[in-house]
């Protein structure tokens, strides 16, 4: 029998993909195991990240060597990550749907190509440039004019009142994240709108609906699964975004936001900003605790992406 | 457009018979239209504002000095960072392209069974993994465990893992667009599987695969998070060592130099951001142009 060299080679190289995913999870789990054992589950819902006295002598607590007074709790990161991504989704969804409709049906075909370039290129801008834009343009603008104005105007709404802050914070991060994920949602939705059967639309039109009503009552309900799938996918992106959030979030430590202008930090941004100080810990527990955060973030995004892809597969969208 | 003609027809007939669209419906439609137009204008405005902001701040700093000087603590040029970005993007592409394209071929030609579905699913999940997590894993495995320290190789391998799923999926899509009859013709002429793929399918899908590769390079150029703790940072030119030798890259300049208190550092950060953005956008536009040109020259397969 002839050995299928070509196919065997293909299979061998293709297996790099799942192997790297498994390796990622395995390496992180193994490396952060001491931290997992030390922190138990309180890690997730205690609000106390403290590297301890880095100049003291290591002490042994629960069989693990740590610096005196060291505690690792990331509730503020969980809250910051989830709330900023949820706010971003809230802002991005309507605008992405509107833009997708505008580009797929609102303008004539010959204009739609060049105009959709705006959306596609927006998706390609590196996240650190988003961060720079947020830092240089949005933070001063929001902090000096828009947030004080909002805080004054909406002083009767619970989370919109109070100290408008400096511009670094939850709402600024959510805004930057929203601008980042709008093109993602919009691009897939645009294709799906185009793929919808024209018969459905024509049936709606012949009942006397105008085009927007057809979109709202017929096309959009039909694309519900796609919409949810793409939404979750974008959520995954927002949850894991590092650089842009790092530059505009204010990098709060052990602080829970009391209104939407307050500084926050997210898991991804925290990992990026804290490794340098974690390396000062001679017991290595701080680095392992950071790796536990990375593991939590990885598992969250894997679950989120899993759900999104499952939904999109059921809707037969690539 | 057919729908538009139908709509006009319906409304004409309705008004001829004396039917009127109620005020609330007309108001709602008008509002909806305003929202739709607003949302597109919002996206376009954001794009223009990002590009404009970067360009305006970067303009005074765009001097030949950028290309001839290396960075120092607060300023200087960007020669080393530009070199580093190129080294790592090209390195990651060289590693990721063969593996990614081979995986794409597997997915498209043999990926209809359970294993293929699983693989496709996992590569889609891999796309969604935050790049900082990739960077951290690169840090604990290559930088610490293998003892490479902050190094070019660690950066390149981390980027490679990030790029793999993109390249695999774009290759798969490109090959899947080629009709079955083309493969049958190849096998009918007595070609083996390898020959069909390498001599018939790959050339046919080349423009689309190239577009995917251009996109991947653009993506790797713009990444910061996976490189922070794998490639490190260096103020000097790369000396050709793959391990134990950190390297500079443009995105690092953007995020550290903007935090310095000096105007010169800020200008350098904006200049780096401008170079990165311009590079990424140009690569993506070239990729699209290649696709259009290739399809025009060779003709697209009709599915």
Describe the structure.
The complex is a heterodimer of chains A (318) and B (303). Chain A is globular and about 80 Å long. By secondary structure, chain A is mainly α. In chain A, strand 1 and strand 2 (64-66) form a beta hairpin. Chain A has 13 helices and 2 strands; from the N terminus they run αααββαααααααααα. The two termini of chain A are 38 Å apart. In chain A, helix 4 packs across helix 10 (224-240), helix 5 (109-124) runs antiparallel to helix 7 and helix 8 crosses helix 9 (211-222). The longest helix of chain B has 36 residues, at 23-58. At the A-B interface, helix 1, helix 2, helix 4, helix 5 and helix 6 of A face helix 1, helix 2, helix 4, helix 5 and helix 6 of B.
Observed structural traits:
heterodimer, A: 318 residues, mainly alpha, two-stranded antiparallel ribbon, B: 303 residues, 75% helix, globular
Please tell me how large the radius of gyration of chain A is: 24 Å
Structural class of chain A: mainly alpha
Order of helices and strands of chain A: HHHEEHHHHHHHHHH
The main β sheet of chain A shows up as:
2 strands, antiparallel
H/E topology pattern of chain B: HHHHHHHHHHHH
């Amino acid at each position: 029998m002839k050995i299928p060299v070509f196919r065997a080679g293909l299979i061998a190289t293709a297996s790099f993909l799942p192997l790297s995913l498994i390796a990622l999870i395995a390496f992180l789990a193994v490396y952060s195991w001491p931290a997992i054992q030390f922190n138990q589950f309180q890690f997730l819902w205690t609000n106390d990240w403290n590297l301890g006295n880095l100049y003291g002598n290591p002490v042994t607590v629960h069989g693990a060597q740590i610096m005196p007074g060291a505690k690792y709790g990331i509730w503020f990161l969980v809250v910051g990550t989830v709330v900023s991504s949820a706010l971003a989704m809230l802002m991005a969804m309507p605008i992405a749907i509107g833009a997708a409709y505008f580009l797929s049906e609102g303008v004539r075909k010959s204009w739609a190509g060049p105009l959709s370039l705006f959306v596609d290129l927006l998706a390609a801008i590196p996240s650190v440039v988003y961060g720079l834009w947020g830092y240089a343009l949005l933070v001063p603008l929001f902090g000096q004019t828009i947030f004080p104005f909002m805080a004054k105007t909406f002083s009767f709404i619970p989370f919109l009142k109070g100290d408008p802050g400096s511009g670094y914070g939850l709402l600024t991060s959510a805004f930057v994240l929203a601008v980042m994920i709008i093109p993602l949602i919009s691009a897939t939705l645009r294709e799906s709108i185009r793929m919808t059967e024209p018969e459905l639309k024509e049936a709606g039109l012949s009942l006397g609906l105008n085009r927007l009503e057809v979109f709202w009552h017929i096309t959009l309900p039909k694309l519900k699964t796609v919409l949810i799938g793409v939404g979750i996918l974008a959520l995954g992106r927002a949850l894991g975004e590092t650089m842009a959030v790092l530059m505009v979030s204010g990098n709060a430590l052990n602080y829970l936001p009391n209104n939407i202008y307050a500084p926050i930090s997210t898991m991804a941004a925290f990992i990026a900003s804290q490794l340098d100080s974690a390396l000062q810990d001679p017991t290595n527990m701080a680095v392992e605790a950071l790796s536990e955060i990375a593991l939590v973030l990885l598992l969250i995004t894997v679950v989120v992406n899993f759900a999104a892809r499952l939904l999109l597969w059921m809707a037969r969208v690539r | 457009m057919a729908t538009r003609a139908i709509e006009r027809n319906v409304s004409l007939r309705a008004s001829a018979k004396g039917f009127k669209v109620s005020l609330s419906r007309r108001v709602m439609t008008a509002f909806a239209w305003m929202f739709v137009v607003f949302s597109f204008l919002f996206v376009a405005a954001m794009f223009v504002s990002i590009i404009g902001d970067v360009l305006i701040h970067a303009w005074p700093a765009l001097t030949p000095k950028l290309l001839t000087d290396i960075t120092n603590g607060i300023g200087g040029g960007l020669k080393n960072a530009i070199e580093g970005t190129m080294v790592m993007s090209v390195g990651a592409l060289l590693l990721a392209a063969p593996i990614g394209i081979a995986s794409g071929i597997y997915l498209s030609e043999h990926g209809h069974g359970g294993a293929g579905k699983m693989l496709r699913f996992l590569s889609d999940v891999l796309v969604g993994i935050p790049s900082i997590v990739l960077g951290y894993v690169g840090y604990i495995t290559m930088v610490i465990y293998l003892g490479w320290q902050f190094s070019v190789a660690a950066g390149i391998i981390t980027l490679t893992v990030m790029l793999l799923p993109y390249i695999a999926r774009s290759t798969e899509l490109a090959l899947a667009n080629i009709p079955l009859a083309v493969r049958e013709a190849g096998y009918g002429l007595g070609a083996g599987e390898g020959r069909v793929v390498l001599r018939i399918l790959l050339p046919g899908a080349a423009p689309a695969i190239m577009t995917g590769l251009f996109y991947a390079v653009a993506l790797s150029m713009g990444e910061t998070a996976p490189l922070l703790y794998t490639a490190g940072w260096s103020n000097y030119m790369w000396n050709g060592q793959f391990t134990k030798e950190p390297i500079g890259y443009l995105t690092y300049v953007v995020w550290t130099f903007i935090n310095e208190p000096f105007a010169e550092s800020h200008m350098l950060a904006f200049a780096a951001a401008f170079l990165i953005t311009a590079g990424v956008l140009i690569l993506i536009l070239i990729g699209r142009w290649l696709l259009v040109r290739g399809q025009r020259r060779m003709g697209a397969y009709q599915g």
